[in-house]
């Protein structure tokens, strides 16, 4: 597509990584300053899409490996896998009862 040693399959993961990367400070700010079920849902969606993005990166590495001039296969698999696990841990933590209650707030508790 654009020439050079990188396979065309890497364009989508690079683009989505850039978008998710620019959203990190926004999501951290909202996490620290806001509460509510809409924010909780946004965090769940952000982390689920982030984990899917890392899975897409693993698939791109499997189908069209990144050239060794850019990174070794071990580096790519390890880096992507570690951060995918972090996304999945964050997603799992968001479904804990105490975390859900924290975002619901005292006014929205129905127990």
Summarize the structure.
By secondary structure, the chain is mainly α.
Structure overview:
This protein is mainly α. Helices cover 72% and strands 0% of the residues. The mean pLDDT is 83.
Count of DSSP-assigned helices? 4
Radius of gyration: 17 Å
Separation of termini? 56 Å
Main β-sheet, in a few words? Answer: none
Q: Which structural category fits the helices and strands?
A: mainly alpha
Strand content: under 5%
What would the average pLDDT be, to the nearest integer? 83
Helix content: over 70%
Shape designation: elongated
Which residues form runs of ≥5 with pLDDT under 50? none
The ordered string of helix (H) and strand (E) elements is HHHH
Strand tally, please?
0
Which features characterize this protein?
about 110 residues; about 70% helix; 4 helices; elongated; single chain; about 0% strand; mainly alpha
Topology record:
Elements: H1 11-33, H2 37-63, H3 73-94, H4 97-104
Helix pairs in contact: 1-2, 2-3
């Amino acid at each position: 597509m654009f020439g050079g040693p990188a396979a065309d399959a890497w364009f989508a993961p690079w683009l989505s990584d850039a978008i998710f990367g620019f959203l990190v400070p926004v999501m951290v700010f909202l996490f620290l300053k806001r509460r509510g079920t809409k924010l909780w849902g946004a965090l769940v969606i952000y982390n689920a899409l982030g984990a899917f993005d890392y899975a897409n990166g693993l698939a791109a590495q499997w189908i069209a490996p990144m050239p060794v001039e850019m990174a070794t296969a071990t580096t790519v698999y390890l880096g992507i896998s570690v951060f995918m696990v972090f996304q999945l841990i964050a997603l799992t933590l968001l479904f804990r009862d105490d975390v859900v209650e924290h975002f619901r707030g005292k006014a929205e508790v129905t127990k």
